[in-house]
């Protein structure tokens, strides 16, 4: 599924459907039971984005971009 495609997208831009550009994938957080993308953001601590199909909408290798639909409030954490 899409979430599996996101495993190899280090350096890709992360773009939210509503908020626009969020940051850049800098790695993977392999928490027990859930994989999360670590997204580096300017002026903020890294954002952990759960690798689930409800959040990861598409991975575009040509554009090096991950399109996401972040849950409300996630960007404010």
Mean pLDDT: 90
**What order do the SSEs take from the amino end to the carboxyl end, as H and E?**
HEEEEEE
- Radius of gyration, in angstroms, nearest whole number: 11 Å
- Envelope shape: globular
Number of helical elements: 1
Q: Could you say which structural class the secondary elements and strand pairing correspond to?
A: mainly beta
Oligomer: single chain
Order of strands in the sheet with the most strands? 4-3-2-1-6-5
Q: How much helix is in the residues? A: under 10%
Q: Let me know the number of strands.
A: 6
* Poorly predicted ranges: none
Largest beta-sheet details: 6 strands, mixed
N- to C-terminal separation? Answer: 27 Å
Strand portion, in percent?
over 45%
């Amino acid at each position: 599924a899409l979430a599996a495609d996101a495993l190899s997208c280090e350096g890709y831009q992360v773009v939210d459907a509503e908020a626009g550009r969020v940051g850049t994938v800098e790695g993977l957080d392999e928490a027990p039971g859930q994989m999360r993308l670590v997204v580096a953001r300017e002026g903020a601590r890294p954002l952990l984005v759960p690798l689930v199909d409800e959040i990861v909408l598409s991975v575009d290798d040509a554009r090096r971009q991950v399109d996401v639909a972040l849950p409300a409030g996630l960007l404010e954490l």
